[in-house]
Write a structure and sequence with these properties.
Bound molecules: pyridoxal-5'-phosphate
Number of helices: 12
Helix content: 25-40%
Radius of gyration: 23 Å
CATH class of the largest domain: Alpha Beta
Number of domains: 2
Structural class: alpha/beta
Shape: globular
Length: 416
């Protein structure tokens, strides 16, 4: 579900013609629909409204301050994975007691920053990290609130790079080793045990992996209780999938209904960390065709956007729908590879797509680019990162200026 639709053969973002946005702000351009991501946020919220639930939007999916600020206004907290994301989150004025901090490699500096900021809790991913946090909290004469991220050893049935809950993954603490770490944490003076955490992967379309994981985690919580280790929070992570192509992801309601029977009766506060589900379909990437290159075996739409703006096709082989911004009813269809200008064969956005015949100057729209798009963008080939615009009804606001070449070189120094 989203609010990018054709009206009279022109693609609109909510009530704004995308041609006007491309004209005004240039391309490549990320366009976000506020109505779309707020509706997704409320879908998750409503699905769990019968339980005490904190929704911590996963900042890494799309960390633009304007997006974070709208999420905060809607009542969300934040799931962060770095000091940088903590900094961004705090800029919105969010209550730090709505921030949870995951990640396998938190540095001492980041841990101090989070302790000083008074976040809700760390999601600890190893014994070594537990020791580090206890020592730093001691030095700061405070106590750290923590949960442990449990690796339940389930297959999230998703792309290998975003499958995070199998025992061979670097993430979380092996469920077989977890009881011992809780017992040792209980003895530490500068640690408050607050919860149990899991995050089994991303772009998960079926509730089955959650059911497998949550039922294991529920048994584990019972074990903790037998050991008199009491927790207050159960963090189920993120991972709900969206539609890129022909996927049929379960709705937030279906996920919630499948999960709830396994956690009912524990009287725990629930934390959820959706990222992609909220912002994925709420963003598109707009590019302009520079050349139509006709080869002997292939036609290429060479556009002004590519892997530095959206790396998902190159990195994961991800599918994104590519559609023309302006419908050409009479045009014949042709097969195209939609590619960027970058000097890498991996620089493609889409392959073998049946599109109306395109010409230089035409605008293309890459759909479902709101999550892990701009947040993974780079300056490769010394390309300034794209501008970002947020649409709200008929209103559009530039929420990130296009970078300039001067900015790209500003921190570099030549040696005389
Ligand atoms: C990336 C991440 C998320 C969000 O995942 P989505 O698939 O975007 O919902 C949530 N929690 C943690 C710990 C993450 O690393």
């Amino acid at each position: 579900m989203d609010y990018f639709n054709y009206k009279k053969n022109k693609l609109f973002a909510e009530d704004v013609d995308i041609n006007i946005l491309a004209e005004k702000y240039g391309t490549p351009l990320y366009v976000y629909s506020k109505r779309t991501f707020l509706e997704h946020f409320h879908k998750v919220k409503n699905a769990f409204s019968d339980m005490e639930t904190l929704i911590c939007y996963s900042v890494k999916a799309n960390s633009n301050l304007a997006v974070l600020n709208e999420m905060k206004k809607a009542g969300a907290g934040f799931d962060i994975v770095s000091g940088g994301e903590l900094y961004r989150s705090l800029k919105t004025g969010v209550d730090p007691k709505k921030i949870v901090y995951a990640g396998v490699g938190k540095t001492a500096e980041e841990i101090r920053y989070a302790l000083k900021s008074g976040i809700l809790m760390f999601n600890i991913e190893s014994t070594e990290e537990l020791k580090a946090i206890n020592n730093i909290a001691k030095a700061m004469k405070t106590r750290a609130d923590v949960a442990f991220r449990i690796n339940p050893d389930v297959d999230a049935l998703t792309h290998a790079y975003v499958n995070t809950g199998k025992k061979e993954s670097k993430f979380g603490i092996d469920i077989m080793m977890a009881l011992n770490i809780y017992k040792s944490a209980k003895k530490l003076k500068h640690i408050n045990i607050k919860g149990v955490d899991m995050h089994i992967g991303s772009q998960i379309t079926s509730p089955i992996p959650y059911i497998n994981a949550v039922s294991k985690i529920a048994r584990f919580v019972s074990e903790l209780r037998r050991e008199n280790i009491n927790i207050e929070y159960l963090n189920l992570g993120g991972g709900l999938g969206v539609i890129y192509d022909e996927e049929k992801p379960s709705t937030a309601d279906v996920f919630a209904r499948a999960i709830k029977p396994h956690i009912a009766g524990f009287d725990l506060k629930i934390i959820l960390e959706p990222g992609r589900f909220i912002i994925g379909n709420a963003g598109v990437l707009i590019g302009r065709v520079t050349y139509v290159k006709k080869g002997r075996t292939k036609n290429f739409l060479i556009t002004d956007t590519g892997m530095n703006d959206l790396i998902r096709p190159s990195l994961y082989g991800s599918y994104h729908k590519v559609i023309p911004v302006n419908v050409k009813k009479s045009a014949d269809l042709d097969y195209y590879d939609v590619v960027g200008p970058i000097c890498e064969s991996g620089d493609f956005l889409a392959k073998d797509r049946h599109l109306p015949q395109m010409e230089a100057g035409d605008l293309i729209c890459v759909r479902t680019a709101g999550a892990y798009g701009m947040s993974m963008a780079s300056n490769y080939n010394t390309r300034p990162r794209a501008a970002e615009v947020m649409v709200d009804g008929a209103k559009h606001t530039l929420v990130r200026e296009r970078e300039t070449l001067e900015e790209l070189t500003a921190k570099e120094r030549m040696i005389k």
